[in-house]
Amino acid sequence: MASSIPSSHLKIFFPILLSFSLIFSISHPAIAASPSYSPPPPSNFTNTLKSYKAFIKQYCSSTTYPKNCYKYLSPYASVIKTSPLVLTKSSIYVSLKQTIKSYSALKSLTKVKGLTHNETQVIKDCYENIGDSLDEVKDSAAAVKNLTGGNTYEEAFEWSNIKTWMSAAITSYYTCTDEFDELTIRGSLQKKITTDVLKAENMVSNALSCVNKFTSY
Ligand SMILES: *[C@@H]1O[C@H](CO)[C@@H](O)[C@H](O)[C@H]1NC(C)=O
Ligand SMILES: *[C@@H]1O[C@H](CO)[C@@H](O)[C@H](O)[C@H]1NC(C)=O
Ligand SMILES: *[C@@H]1O[C@H](CO)[C@@H](O)[C@H](O)[C@H]1NC(C)=O
């Protein structure tokens, strides 16, 4: 089922994310096990921010699209600091943000006039597929909100759900682009849809890499 998210929804995620960093009780072994990026004395802001960004770059290096990962997470360096948990949560919020954007881009395409029968069908299917992805990424974002990185059965269960949802979201993106094998549409339109869908797919893939890395310690 395609779902709709009010755009006002978007605005609340980052403030929520910001507040996370204040209330975390950092207890996950991943944090202890993470490379020693001890930030320099807080008196030197430039140095500190640099080390936070270095941490993000290093963490992103094992994701599917490292450059994209760094590009979209580094603006949150001062929130993420050197916390693998906050980084992982942020990666999910960033992927939710992009999925919402891609979803609304597809929605706009459904209103374009003068489409061929094939084009109408492809856009309709892709819109539905992205809607499914959006539901799954939304569920992941809601579930991760409560997680503290604690080593409990409940948390492990939630992380496992998140992995399942994000994998399903990725599958839905490819279900969309697979349509091009079945139905021939204008090259320019195919390119536009592919770009929109893959932007979201890349972010979700990265977020899933972050989740896998975080839970593999
Ligand atoms: C902070 O670090 C930067 C880069 O290493 C250095 O250029 C600057 O002089 C430092 N500032 C202070 C106040 O120590
Ligand atoms: C998060 O925790 C609160 C308080 O424990 C609970 O009421 C809420 O249902 C939880 N949300 C999710 C998505 O698990
Ligand atoms: C629709 O797609 C089919 C399958 O690729 C193709 O044979 C057909 O020519 C397409 N129709 C139009 C109008 O492009």
TrEMBL record:
Xref: InterPro entries: Invertase/methylesterase_inhib, Pectinesterase_inhib_dom, PME_Inhibitor
Keyword Signal: yes
Domain Pectinesterase inhibitor positions: 51-210
UniProtKB keywords: Signal
SUPFAM superfamilies registered for this protein in UniProt: Plant invertase/pectin methylesterase inhibitor
Residue ranges the record marks as coiled coil: none
Signal peptide: 1-32
GO MF, one example: enzyme inhibitor activity
PANTHER family the record matches: PECTINESTERASE INHIBITOR-LIKE, PLANT INVERTASE_PECTIN METHYLESTERASE INHIBITOR
Family the UniProt entry places it in: Belongs to the PMEI family.
Alphabetized NCBIfam families for the sequence: PME_inhib
Protein name per its UniProtKB record: Pectinesterase inhibitor domain-containing protein
